[in-house]
Every structure is written in structure tokens, then in C-alpha cells.
Design a protein that fits this description.
CATH superfamily of the largest domain: FAD/NAD(P)-binding domain
Family: Belongs to the class-II pyridine nucleotide-disulfide oxidoreductase family.
Structural class: alpha/beta
Pfam families: Pyr_redox_2
Strand content: 25-35%
Protein name: Thioredoxin reductase
GO molecular function, one term: thioredoxin-disulfide reductase (NADPH) activity
CATH class of the largest domain: Alpha Beta
Oligomer: single chain
Largest sheet: 7 strands, mixed
Helix content: 10-25%
Order of helices and strands: EHEHEEEEEEHEHEHEEEEEEEH
InterPro entries: FAD/NAD-bd_sf (IPR036188), FAD/NAD-binding_dom (IPR023753), Ferredoxin-NADP_redctase_2 (IPR050097), Pyr_nucl-diS_OxRdtase_2_AS (IPR008255), Thioredox_Rdtase (IPR005982)
Shape: elongated
Distance between the termini: 19 Å
Length: 313
Amino acid sequence: MINIAIIGGGPAGLSAGLYATRGGIKDVVLFEKGMPGGQITGSSEIENYPGVKEIKSGLDFMEPWQEQCFRFGLRHEMIEVSQITKKDNHFVIHHADGKTTESKAVILATGGRPKRIGIAGENEFWGRGVSTCATCDGFFYKNKEVVVIGGGDTALEEAIYLTKMCQKVYLVHRRDSFRAAPITVEHAKNNDKIEFLTPFSPKEIKGDASGVTGIILQNTQTNEIKELAVPGVFVFVGYDVNTQVLQQENGSMLCECDKSGSVVVDLSMRTNIKGLFAAGDIRINAPKQVVCAAGDGATAALQAIAYLDSLKH
């Protein structure tokens, strides 16, 4: 039996591993089916992490985290976790291949996944012109026109990034106001390559055998229909938290979650199940910032250490 199982290898999971192992805990395992790093590795620019003055891509930013976090003995298992259950006073980590690992404590840091709009053509052309990663796919649209859908920080930041290679970026949002930070909105509006289309809602993504060829939009106030001939549509409309591993055989969740699926925790990242902690974007009221996720991971690890100490007495 291991001491701490960390599920998820983003900033929260890696920070949890660093603080747990540096805190003297042995047998700490990070379960992440791919290379650690998390969603942030798809970001085009990181410029607001304290102490890092250079502007870096998410991939470059996360690269040294792995070396540092594994330095003190954190073990990485490239295994997909399908479920977490509780048995007596410990947890059972169920692997996708049917095997299991038992652990005294668990830190859940599985983050989320991009939401889809749910319009015609989106699923059909997903990966063939419909993308959620400007860093990954922006190069394919060099000197072309693309559409970005969304009104949050991610949508506007990625729209700005796409102007570095694209001829023009249409920013589509269903409202006239934006959820993004005012400074981000200002940067986008000052970029002459970005055309704001508000209040417009996407209705259908068109395409053929070669991929996306255009998108149909509708004005939410006047019902005006507008069709844009573009080869690329980037969707940034939020994401769903990855809490599938918490679902039990009877359909209930292992711990308390809110109506949106986020894990309910206190300020110490403790769930209502002793020994189970949640950190990062998966928890309630998550700011969805790297620095906050890292802080969550450190907090969860320190609390997990205290929990393990309590088991000895």
C-alpha cells in the first residue's frame, strides 16, 4: 500500500507531489497517463506567474516543473485511473486495465476538459478545422482567416496569439460584454487584426472532405444571419471538470460535489471524506490560474501529511 496517490499531473498534482515528497513522505505516486504538465502546456503565453519575468509558452513554462517535482522521490505511473473507491480506512485506485493500487490518502487534481458548443458540424469537424488549442493548431492557418468563439480570458488571449500568424481573427461572442479581464479586452480591441462580432451566436460549422470551410452565425438581438468562409474555428467556451473517477457503482459520487460537478472542499482542500483531497481546477470556486492550482496542490499535500500523521496515533 502506498501513502499518497495523486491523480492528475498538472500544476496542482505536480506541486502536491513536490510538497509531499519533500515533506518526507515515502511511496507517493503520481498517476498521469501522459506526460505531466496539464492543460497549461497548450497556452501560448504565460506572463503572470510570480518570479518568472520571461514570457514563456505553457510548454516551456512547465518543462522544469517535472525535474524539480521528481527530485525528491515522487514516482510517476503512466496509468489511466478509471475509478477511486473507499475500502475500510484506505482508498482503492482502479486502473483502466483492471489492476488496482491501494493508498492511505488521495489527492485528486484531474482538472477539466474543454466544453463544446453543441452545434451542427462541431463533432464532425473536431480536429479537422475545429480546435481548442491555438498553440497546437494556429500554424496551420498562417495568413488565413479564422474564428474564435468565447468571451473569457482564454478566448481573447488565444485570439491575440492567433493574430501573430493569421491574416484576420473574428472574435464571436453571444453578448456585448466580456468575462475576460478589462486589460485583456483592451489588448484585443487595440489589435487591428481582430474583428469583434457581438452579440452573435454560432449556429453551424460547415465543411467538406478537406475539413472546415465556414461557419454560420446568428445575431442574438436582430436574428441576422452571417456566414463566414474560414478554414478554422477555435472554441473557448469553458470546460467540464474531470470527476468521472469519483463516480461509484451505484451512480453516486465518492465525495460531495456541487451542481456543476466541482468537488466541494474547505480552505485546506479537504473533501467530506477523510483522507481525500482535491486541488486545482476540479475544486469549487477555483480561480483557474496556474499559481492558484500550484498553491492548492501544496496545501493538499501538507494536509495529506497531517492526515497520515493522525493515522499513527
